[in-house]
Structures are given as C-alpha cells and as structure tokens.
Amino acid sequence: MAAFSTIVRRTALRYPMLFGIAEAVGMGWGAIRAYKLRAGLTILGVVMGIMTVTGMSSIVAGLNASMAAQIENLGSSVIFIRPFTPGERLSDEEFRRRKGLAQSELQAIMERCPDVKALAPIEPLVADLIKYGDQRLKDAQLAGATAGYETVHDLYVDKGRFLSDMDVTRAAHVAVVGADVVDALFPFVDPIDKDISIDGRRFRVVGVLERKGKILFFNRDNIILVPLGAIQKRDPRFNFVVADAKAVSAARLQNAIDEIQELLRRQRKLRFWQSDNFGVFTQDTITDLYRQVTGGIYMVMIAISSIGLLVGGVGVMNIMLVSVTERTREIGVRKALGAKRRDIRWQFLTEAMTLTGVGGVLGIALGGLIAWIVNAFSPFPAVLQLGWVLAAFFVSMAVGLIFGLWPALKAAQLDPIEALRYE
Asked: Which residue blocks in 186-242 are alpha helix, DSSP H?
C-alpha cells in the first residue's frame, strides 16, 4: 500500500496535468454517482442524440454495403438503355414523348457498335394471373427476352435450357422461370416440361434459373422470361422495349456507352443542340442516385441528433452553473491553498466532459443495441462502424467542452475571499 502511494505521489509530481485530469474525472464521476437522477436527466439529450447518430449511421451503412454488393452482382460491364435516366426530371409532355427502342435501333447497335459484346432486348410485361394447377402467383416479374439476356446478366439455368434464338423467331410459348417461381408453383414436382398459364395462355417451362437473390427492389428469383414478342402487349404503360448491353471489357465500357449514344442520336435524327431523348447509363448511376438519397438521410439524422445534443448541452451548462454555486466555498478553499485559475477552469471543464462522455457511451451502447435488433429481426442490414462510433464519442465530449466553458470561466473568476465567505 505504501509503495502504491509512493508511485501515485511520484506520478503526480512528474505529470501534474495528468494527475489533475484524473482527479477531475473522478470528481465528475462521483457527482454522477451521488446525484444519479439529476445527472441522468442532464445527459438525456446527449444520450438521445448520440443514440440517433450511432443507430441510424449503422442502418444506412448496412444498406449501402448491401446495395453495393447487389449492384456488383450485375457485373461491371453492363449498360442499361432506357427511355429515362434515373433521377431525370421531365415535364409531362416530355415524359409522354419518350419511347422504347425500335427493332432497327437494336439491330444497329449490334452491327455498328464494336465495343458492345452482347445485347439483351427486354419487353416489360404485365400478367394478372399466373398459375399451375391449383397453385397461383400474382407478383412475379414477367418479361420478354432473347438469348442474349443470359450472356449480358450472367444469369444461367440450373436445370433445363435458356431461351434460344429459334424461340424468339417463332415467338414460341416457352418460359424460363426463377427459383422462387418454382417454389410457389411447383413445390413438389419437377417444373421442366410442365405448362403454366399466363393470363390464359399456356407456356411450357423449359428452364429454371439458378438463384441470384435481390437487386435493390427487384427479386431476380421471382422472374419469368418468355421469348420477345410471344405475348401481345395490352397495357399501354409498358408498350416499349428496352435493352441491356454488355461491353467487351470493363476497360472499353465508356467507349461502348459513347458508341450507343452517338448511334441512337443519329437514328433518332437529333440535332446537336437537342438533348438525348433516351437514357444510357451503368450501375454507377444507380449507385450515385442511391448515395444522394442516403446523403439526405444522413443530413436529417445529423439535424435530429443536433437538437438532442443542443438540449443536452444546455442541461449540462445549467447543472454545472448550479454546481459552481453549490461549491463556491470549496473553490475558495482551493484558491487559498494555491490553485490557479486554469486549475479551477480545467477542473470544471473536465467534470462537464465527464458528464457528456458518460452520456456518449450510453448513447453508443443504445445505438449499437438498436443496430443489432434491426440486423437480427428485420430485412434491413445494419453495420456498426468504428468511425461513426469514435466520432459520436468525441462529439459528446465536445458538447461538454463547449457548454461547460461558461460555468468553468465563472468558477475560475471567483474571488477567493468572497468565496470563503459564501454560505
């Protein structure tokens, strides 16, 4: 015990600043333990603000990671050709004028774009009822496609075969279905060579796609592909053909995009001052749009947490002013024994930072708990990020430093004689 006291005394003499900080932290922690309810109510705003930052940042980070992984599955050389670009703002008139790809345009892309390896025209279709026997399915994604769809999207069959060029030429009534469609319509039988009914039309299943999972809000396993032109479209909202293309390599991706844009402008006789009436983009465009959305979420999160931190900071300043008043005589004694203004100032700053630091730790713990619950019991992924955790903790300490400054200055400026007389 004597040896420990000697070590503490030598440490205090060698590192007085460090010893003073430890003493102030201990006093702050003692105040929290002595006045638990008051301290809890004081740091409640800090806890709520830090909890919001930690929990929401974990959820957004999880969504970003999941989205990046899903888009990566599309492949780095896939080009999307659509009537619109994601996030593009159009007037109603311009919206109505946009159209899909003509057969001549599809043919020209394949013949006159050397950096395009494969092209997959896609015909979005709508079906009210898909069934096999007594089993029914209403929410499957139905589309007309060609043999190129397999190459462009690296989407291969697990059983049977894919659509062929002959199927498209003859508009054959055959279909390739996803794994979820098989689970819904064929729970106990082999789907190959079975006939499904699509709004009364019979299609023979010739292939089952391997499982691919979801891409954003599109379930790649809940899909039915039929030959392009096999179903006469009736819904005017989907009366167009789009296409996905694959560049010969990732290095030639931008060249392929430029070739497609130039060709479509020529095909549609657009003047040099006219903007494109089509969209040619890659998954990077989708990623950037998604990041803009999540960036807005981050801003809202920061705004909400700032309110909590402001309320918590005001509470800390109020309680520290009360503490200065309650400990006026103690401050006078410390000054009479030789404590300088900076010592008193640092003592109260450290106590305020200890209060908000404890609130920060509690907020991080609650935010981490929320992230774990969301990740375990909801479809949304959540990833607790070390960077955000450290940032949240240092912000909580900064709140104590900023809002504890005025009480600390007030305590440091007390006259020792007047303080000793205070009752």
From this structure: none
- Indicate if 262 and 359 belong to the same structural domain: no
Q: Which domain holds residue 104?
A: 99-277
- Give the Cβ contact number of residue 4 at 10 Å: 8
> For position 2, what pLDDT does the model report?
47
Report helix, strand or coil for 374.
helix
CA dist 408 and 196 (Å) reads 78
Nearest to 143 by CA among 193, 194, 218, 214: 218
Final residue belonging to a domain, choices 217, 249, 277: 277
Strand partners, 124: 143
Assess whether 168 and 265 both reside in one domain: yes
Closest Cα to residue 223, out of 190, 177, 185, 187?
A: 177
Spatial separation of the C-alpha atoms in residues 21 and 6, rounded to whole Å: 19
Q: Which of 355, 356, 351, 348 is nearest to 412 (CA)?
A: 348
Give dist(CA 423, CA 415) in Å, integer.
14
Can you tell me whether residue 278 is helix, strand or coil? Answer: coil
User: Is the full-model pTM beyond 0.90?
Assistant: no
16: exposed, middle or buried (C-beta count within 10 Å: 0-12, 13-18, 19+)? exposed
Distances (CA, A) of 348 to 182, 234, 293, 397, 414: 68, 75, 42, 13, 13
User: Cα-flanking dihedrals φ and ψ of residue 77, to 5°?
Assistant: -115, 20
Provide the angle, in degrees to the nearest 10, between the axes of the packed helices 341-377 and 44-72: 40
For residue range 165-210, list pLDDT tens digits in order: 999 989 899 999 998 999 889 988 899 999 999 888 899 999 999 8
Q: Residue 53: name the closest of 394, 392, 386 by CA.
A: 392
227: helix, strand or coil: strand
Residues 97-152: tens digit of each pLDDT: 788 888 889 899 988 999 998 899 998 888 888 888 888 887 888 889 999 898 88
- What six digits make up the tokens of 319? 């309680």
DSSP per position, 118-139? EEEEEEEE--S-EEETTEEESS
Rounded to the nearest 10 degrees, what angle do helices 386-403 and 44-72 cross at? 160
In a domain, 181, yes or no: yes
Both 349 and 400 in one domain: the answer is yes
- Please give the Cα distance from 255 to 258 (Å, whole number): 5
